[in-house]
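Escalated from tier 1: aspartic acid holo job.
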Amino acid sequence: MNKPGIAIHGGAGTILRSSMTAEKERQYTNALSEALHAGYDILQKGGSALDAIEAAVSSMEDCPLFNAGKGSVYNYAGKHEMDASIMWGKDISAGAVTLIRNVKNPVALARAVMEKSEHVFLCGEGAEEFAKKINLPFELDTYFDSEFRLAQWHEAQKADGTFLDHNVNVSDKKFGTVGAVAIDIDGNLAAATSTGGMTNKRFGRVGDSPIIGAGTYANNKTCAISCTGHGELFIRSVVAYDISCLIEYKGLSLAEACHEVVMKKLVAIQGEGGLIAIDKNGNIEMPFNSEGMYRAMKNQDTELIAIYK
Ligand code: ASP
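Tier 2 regenerated the structure:
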């Protein structure tokens, strides 16, 4: 029997202690703790890594603090377009959705694509139609709207830029993409990522989060990874799969592989962000090259919730 473990993230970016109040810090810590425990409780009861990561990611999708599900940012056209992906390391099956609107829990749809369709990646209307067919819950636009996100979008429009949601200096609130990785007692690994993308992104833009191998990867032979950061650079670096490859083909440890990719390769092309990773032995790494990353991990020995460097 393996020791179960889980790690989650709520996004990376310019998250500074100086711009955080005690109240906000408490809200984030509580939200991370809730998601962490939602996942770990399942693992502890002998549940699968897949169920654990879906529970953790859904919990963050339902929380307006994070840029996924309910808290998704606005794109260039003033709409919320969401992306998500999930991967099961046991048989390297995977599911992903991109450019979806109004689906309450994108990670649940990604999982359904993996388990209930013959495909891996569904986009836009086709993905939404599939979600309706299998009766997944939808929400009105108003469910995803918030004054804070609107202000953030207006700021990004003024600057004519695309921003990692924590880097827009609209208010001192910071939000982020979410993800989870876990190992269960059977030694199976799983990873999931869910996001509203980048503020003021062009509509139709796809980031790394729904791309298997870039934002998400899991393989029982190596590790499970979920990324957060500037998606374009993460796609170009094929970040999640690169870490798995460094372990599989070069014999690097999880820590060495994470360091190589996050602190060297990504830094060399100004790819800001980070990731969470767990390997087949239950080792956990949560590296980032930005100012901060909302993150948490738990196994039988340790529980950690952290925000800053
Ligand atoms: N990686 C996400 C994207 O580019 C953004 C994030 O991690 O916050 O869509």
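Residues 97 and 122 are 5 Å apart (CA to CA).
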